[in-house]
Please model this.
Amino acid sequence: QVQLVESGGGLVQAGGSLRLSCAASGRTFSSYVIGWFRQALGKEREFVAAIWRSGGSTYYADSVKGRFTISRDNAKNTVYLQMNSLEPEDTAVYSCAASTRTGLLRDYAPRQDAYAYWGQGTQVTVSS
Model:
């Protein structure tokens, strides 16, 4: 199994940037696809981005494409979410999750049920 802990959340102004980290424990970190999800108050949790085991492939929700970048450093057991040009609608609790699924990310990465392990989340607040 793998344990995930998010960090890096905080309060930023619209147009600003923030980098979230998803730190994992366990020796099989590189065997997991890692996804980022977010949930705003009063809204359902939604998919943000996902990254393949090797980091060679990524997939993004249309709402963040071009603004957010997901990356991973398997040597550090960490996945990052670089968030640029933040908007108030980006305000949410951001959680990372680990999946054992295989195949094209676009076929399963957006589905919450594709992920077996979840972190507790970190709050991101974007002020206008």
Notes: The chain has a mean pLDDT of 96. Residues 4 and 110 are 18 Å apart (CA to CA). DSSP finds one helix and eleven strands in the chain.
